[in-house]
UniProtKB/TrEMBL annotation:
Protein name listed in UniProt: Tyrosine decarboxylase
UniProt family annotation: Belongs to the group II decarboxylase family.
Record flagged with keyword Ribonucleoprotein: no
Organism, as annotated: Sphagnum jensenii
One Pfam family matching this protein: Pyridoxal_deC
Entry annotated with the keyword Cytoplasm: no
Keywords linked to the UniProt accession: Decarboxylase, Lyase, Pyridoxal phosphate
Gene3D superfamilies attached to this UniProt entry: Aspartate Aminotransferase, domain 1 (3.90.1150.10), Type I PLP-dependent aspartate aminotransferase-like (Major domain) (3.40.640.10)
Cofactor: pyridoxal 5'-phosphate
């Protein structure tokens, strides 16, 4: 986002004859309401006004992916108001619903409005090492930058995030500075890559060695097997949910995140918000499993993620037994 800001400010200040401070107040960021909080955090770091952050609405009809029509409408409205769309974040595997945005169409829109197009595949990007899931990245060639987190789902210890940029010079231009105490012959002659100019921190750990070791230890087939096993187990868990009439799926399972909840009983005044929150609290209080929650279109939703290194089918079956038992206790109290 800082690289995108650098590019657009130079263009806007020149073409619109306005100061950098004024132009900065008119820059707009777009993503879906399913995006991870890091997008808003990036806005805060880059000095983008919160009022100019657009978490565009999604719903179950598109499995919570961002609608190109919604994006076009928002961008057109902002341009008509004298604002400057400059950054679009597409998603592959959102935190709350594993939604995948239509990357190809979003890329075309980004190009039309001159926006930097970033794709956040932090979680589900790992799945795309399997050919059968590669289609989720169709359109990635239109991106200006792309990231995924091997520490999320590729057997690599935290923290390890990978970032690709189409033009690294733009990133360096936004973040580089050369105080005298960091000047040296290798840097001056471009003999080395100074990653301090590619990121916000000055120093960095040797994270790459962790990923290198994982790749060499497991190999392509081993990592693919790991991903496929998790997705298979998650699909099995989804089948268990669908087989119990007391529960419902909120969104189909794309990867290894299962979003479900107890159905709303007759007479519920809050669409089962209280009932399902009590279920989450009861399960986590026991400490045998950890279930998180989110809201999708205002619906309180339980999130069950299959992601442990050594997780097996019997672990998930045991977890489902616990969930069913606690649900029965709650229903008995209704």
């Amino acid at each position: 986002m800082l690289a995108a800001r650098k590019c657009v400010l130079k263009k806007v200040c020149t073409s619109q004859h306005m100061s950098e401070a004024e132009a900065l107040t008119k820059l707009v960021v777009y993503t879906s309401d399913q995006a991870q909080s890091c997008v808003l955090r990036a806005c805060q770091i880059a000095g983008i006004a919160t009022a100019n952050f657009r978490p565009l609405p999604t719903d179950a009809s598109s499995h919570f992916s961002l609608s190109p029509a919604v994006l076009i409408k928002a961008a057109a409205t902002d341009v008509a108001a004298g604002l400057f769309p400059f950054f679009l974040c597409g998603k592959v595997g959102t935190t709350s619903s594993s939604a995948v945005d239509p990357l190809l169409e979003l890329g075309d829109i980004a190009k039309r409005y001159g926006m930097w197009y970033h794709i956040d595949a932090a979680y589900a990007g790992s799945a795309c090492i399997c050919p059968e899931f590669r289609h989720y990245l169709n359109g990635v060639e239109k991106a200006d930058s792309y990231n995924m987190n091997p520490h999320d789902w590729m057997l690599t210890n935290f923290d390890c995030s990978t970032l690709w940029v189409k033009n690294s010079e733009l990133l360096v231009a936004a973040l580089s500075n050369k105080p005298v105490y960091l000047q040296n012959e290798a840097t001056d002659n471009n003999l080395v890559v100074d990653y301090k100019d590619w990121e916000i921190p000055l120093g960095r750990r040797f994270r790459a060695v962790k990923l290198w070791m994982v790749m060499h230890l497991y190999g392509v087939s081993g990592l693919q097997s790991h991903i496929r096993n998790h997705i298979s187990i998650a699909k099995h868990f989804e089948s268990l949910v669908r087989a119990d009439f007391r529960f419902e799926m909120i969104v189909p399972t794309n990867f290894s995140l299962v979003c479900f909840r107890l159905r709303t009983p007759a007479g519920s005044k809050d669409n089962s918000h209280t009932l399902n929150s009590k279920l989450v609290e009861a399960l986590n209080r026991k400490g045998d499993i950890l279930v998180t929650h989110t809201e999708l279109s205002g619906i309180y939703t339980l999130c069950f993620a299959v992601g442990g290194t050594h997780v097996e089918l019997h672990h998930v079956q045991a977890a489902w037994n616990l969930i069913q038992a606690e649900a029965s206790l709650l229903n008995d109290k209704q």
